[in-house]
Amino acid sequence: MKEILLLGNMNANSIWLASWLKSENYNIKIFSFDENSHWDKTQVGNKRFKVLTLKDIKTKYYFGSRFKAFLVEHDVIIGNGIAPLLCYINSAKLNLFIPYGGDIRWLTNYYRINLKMPLKEIFVAIIVTYLQSRGIKKCENIFLRKWSNNIIPNKIYKTYKTSPYPIITCGPELVLSNLTVSNLKKSKIKKILCPTRHEWTDKRNPSDKGQDVIIYGVKKFVDKNPKFEFEITFFEYGRCVAKSKELIEKLEISSYFKWQPKVTPSEVITFMLEADLILLEGFHSCEWNASHAQAIVSEKPIIAYVDHSINDDIYPVELNLYSDTFENLLLKFFNNEESHIKYAINRKKYLVSKYNETISRIKNIIQSC
């Protein structure tokens, strides 16, 4: 039985991946860097898989003999986050690196360093950037997405070919099921859900989710089309929640918005299934993240910002903020909802095929180790 270590668990991605691999003859362990501190602790747990931390291997450090012994006792290491750095400094082999974004966007670039930072932070950033870059270059396989060319050094990007494999951000129990909500009552008031984190005040930040685009778009839409009835649900999640509430109040459109407390990733899908339309990133190109995958699985129409020149293997978003305004796209949805629903059903079939390709490739990598 192969010993598999999933090193790093940002947004529970390793839990999702483990759920696809559990049917194989593998002994799977998941190790977290506590990178989900922006969630409640209950949100990263899973009854089927124990998530290990430094405390479980009885050490306080990500280096030294005890942590190194923990790494090298596994036949295969699949990692995200700072996994390349840790494997590099501990002389362990990283067999597959599946970056989620920030681990290759921030941790391989010196540009995030500025002179206003304390000297200690500048020093740490230089060291981390160097070690992460070295670790990535020593990695045997990497699922490098095409969008990465815009955000990482050419010396890394040119080392690897871009891969067609998305990050696994949904389990088979969601992707391979026909999901429905029982006793769902149809209403003439359209339910619209925006599940993304509120992050929109710094347009230089690649993690900007663009809720301001949505809020301003709603104002323009209702001014021109007052006859349509709808309600947008936001979650109280992200550092810009107060800013979003303030902007909605300022534009006098509070009646079109409903706020819900932050929920767990597994609970988001229930809200999606009850929605008529899902809003994803309104600024910066969204990719195969958890919200995108869950929205596709729910078979609901989607409005999102997707640049298909750098996200060429994502099934095209028909209501795309990259090429049109929010108010125009919302009107298109209201005027032709049925066609967008049919489109959403075909989009899920595409997701299933991409996930099956990805899992097959990961199993081949595991087999070759």
Helix percent band: 25-40%
Give me the side-by-side strand order of the main sheet: 8-7-6-9-10-11
Instruction: Report the sheet-strand fraction.
Output: 5-15%
Measured distance between first and last alpha carbons: 12 Å
Structural class: alpha/beta
How many E-type strands?
11
Largest sheet: 6 strands, parallel
Q: How large is the count of helical segments?
A: 13
- What's the alpha carbon Rg, rounded to whole Å? 21 Å
Gross morphology? globular
Calculate the mean pLDDT score and round it. 85
Order of helices and strands: EHEEHEHEHHHHEHEHEHEHEEHH
Stretches with pLDDT under 50, minimum 5 residues: 37-46
Summarize the structure.
The protein is of the alpha/beta class and 369 residues long. 38% of the residues lie in helices and 12% in strands. It has helices at residues 13-21, 65-72, 83-89, 102-105, 119-138, 154-157, 172-175, 211-224, 241-250, 265-274, 290-297, 326-335, 337-368; strands spanning 2-7, 26-31, 51-52, 76-79, 96-97, 190-194, 230-236, 257-261, 277-279, 302-304, 319-320.
Could you explain how this protein is built, in words?
It contains 13 helices and 11 strands. The protein has helices at residues 13-21, 65-72, 83-89, 102-105, 119-138, 154-157, 172-175, 211-224, 241-250, 265-274, 290-297, 326-335, 337-368, and strands at residues 2-7, 26-31, 51-52, 76-79, 96-97, 190-194, 230-236, 257-261, 277-279, 302-304, 319-320. Helix 8 (211-224) crosses helix 12 (326-335) and helix 10 (265-274) crosses helix 11 (290-297). The radius of gyration is 21 Å and the shape is globular. Mean pLDDT is 85; it is low at 37-46.
